[in-house]
Write the structure tokens for this entry.
Amino acid sequence: MIAAFLFLVGLVSQTAAHYTPDWTSLDARPLPSWYDEAKLGIFIHWGVFSVPGFNSEWFWWHWQGQQPPDSKCVSYMTKNYPPGFSYPEFAPQFHAQFFNPEAWADIFKASGAKYVVLTAKHHEGFTNWGSPNSWNWNSVDTGPHRDLVGDLGEAVRNRSLHYGLYNSLYEWFHPFYLNDKKNGFKTQDFVMHKLLPELYNMVVRYRPEVIWSDGDWEAPDTYWNSTNFLAWLYNESPVKDTVVTNDRWGAGCACTHGGYYNCQDKYTPGQLPKHKWEKCTSVDMLSWGYRRNMRLKELMDLPTIIHDLVSTVALGGNYLLNVGPTADGMIPAVFEERLRGVGAWIEINGEAIYASKPWRVQTENSTVPVWYTSKDAIVYAIMTAKPPNLTVQLLIPKTSAATKVTLLGTPTPLSWGPLNPGGGLTILLPELPYSPGQAWTLKLEGVQ
Ligand SMILES: *[C@@H]1O[C@H](CO)[C@@H](O)[C@H](O)[C@H]1NC(C)=O
Ligand SMILES: *[C@@H]1O[C@H](CO)[C@@H](O)[C@H](O)[C@H]1NC(C)=O
Ligand SMILES: *[C@@H]1O[C@H](CO)[C@@H](O)[C@H](O)[C@H]1NC(C)=O
Ligand SMILES: *[C@@H]1O[C@H](CO)[C@@H](O)[C@H](O)[C@H]1NC(C)=O
């Protein structure tokens, strides 16, 4: 009897979560619910590229990889560094001496974000943790002499934020990778002896709840062994029940296979996608990594960020907003100000964002541009501009006698009247309060 019972339990838990290493099976896994509810995450690009702090996190490639090289990168090196200076010589200058993971996590928490994704390893191959597969090219052996991935993870989780790790599959200059590439990816020395041992180790050590995969596009998923890794991740790994991943698991996978879809960087769909997606974008419009020569006009201002967040959420996406810390370990004050500004806006309007669902119509331009979200029977109409006077018309909602309209952040219900017999309403607004993100939310109850 007991044996039969145990057998049944085993059978149930197996059928409940057993994925086979093929896309049909893996793509059918439901996304753990925390992810869609979270809506907002913070992305952090930090690595040896933060030391030159010039051009972007692609500096090494632009300087010495691509043909022809970027002349600005070449002359930056000629003018500022001794002849023969090599990229790995930047690593000892990655000091991170001011890195205070608690202070960073406080800023992320204050932004209203619910998850944080750090570059554990970018295309340069340097790991921000003591990877045994990246000898002397990691943050413990050189540079900060510190487990950056582990230390930030503790502080982030301590504030009840989910912790994710970005991992680049390819490494521009790894000799095994270059050799596999020369062999038309018919050999897998890089994957078997570098990538996979490191990736499995990273998951077991740090238990990331997002694996933000990247650098996949030169080779097919069969080269990366992606489906085997994902089957292990979903069936057996210590994060099998909560982890989410994106769609960068091999050439042709983007927007097609994996967990949620990133499609391309800064993806902005025109209408509601069928599959859960995430827009990743950067406060510095020209780079993900820190640039010492960034200018204010090259950064997104707060209203731009908020409007981007709002339209992304209305279209069913999550918003992953990037900042690039300095090699000293500081989040530049201007980025901190943006993140705290996002938090100040969310403090008032978060009800329309977190755990919301797309509504039957996502946007309309009547008096002002409006983006809709919904939660159960409630509809939120987020105005991303200030109406020219104190009346606003919404064409889409169908009102009833029970319709009630409020402005988030103000207590009193607003007066409204029906617009057309078929639907729509005119709302009398109060003097709109200051909004740091230049966006105001109307909460509509009793509408359809
Ligand atoms: C954060 O850490 C403190 C002590 O360092 C602990 O008391 C607290 O419970 C932790 N909070 C969470 C959410 O883990
Ligand atoms: C890689 O994939 C092959 C074939 O799909 C499989 O036999 C092998 O076990 C995989 N290796 C790892 C380390 O995942
Ligand atoms: C609203 O206006 C913007 C800017 O003119 C336009 O791009 C967008 O397509 C319009 N949306 C709708 C639903 O009409
Ligand atoms: C308010 O502005 C709209 C145009 O957006 C206009 O149609 C309406 O007549 C104005 N109402 C008042 C009271 O000025």
